[in-house]
Amino acid sequence: MAEDNPDASIESIAKKVPSVTPKLIEQVLEKYGDPASSETGSPSSDVSKPTAADDYPTESDLSESQRKVLHAIYQNPEASQRELAEDIGVSAATVSNRANSIRGFDWSDRKAFVEAVLDIETASPEQNAKSMFDRNSENSLVFHELEERVSALEEQRENRNGQQEQETTFSDTELVHKMVHACIQYEEISDDEERRILALFIE
């Protein structure tokens, strides 16, 4: 009855229950507790609710393929799945499957997700400048190497063309015969020069 009427006084409760005195009611309430004074057991506001970040995996929890996708997103967070696929050499469907297989990943919030999950230190402006210089130097070396290879290929092609022209000239036996005959019949050519000419055709 006290629970049904938490605001009622002890005297009013005693009047509603026959043979019960206010003193007895007071003793019962002291022993078993007053229902009006008990709390309903609401959750404490001091207990922090779990945030979305608490449900994120750590980088060590991810597979190598999943880490590649997240690193690609970190490098270019505005890229589409197709562009990311080209960067890491897979299909767009593979990028989607790998990303969605990561616990807590949301494509619309991918930038914040990768920054929270990946163990990446923020580089200073000096480090960024050095990294850009290193990439430019590496690109220059690659370009120089390509130039050397192209030059070597052009030289080989020229040598082959010259050799083919020479082979074409001496492959015509009738023409060679006429050339040898003309040289021998030419009176101003000495015997030594004739032998040298014949040796040239024979070789």
Automatic annotation (TrEMBL):
Transmembrane segments: none
Bias kind Polar residues: ranges: 37-48
Source organism: Haloarcula nitratireducens
InterPro entries xrefs: WH-like_DNA-bd_sf, WH_DNA-bd_sf
Name of the protein in its database record: Winged helix-turn-helix transcriptional regulator
Pfam families: HTH_24
Region (Disordered): 28-65
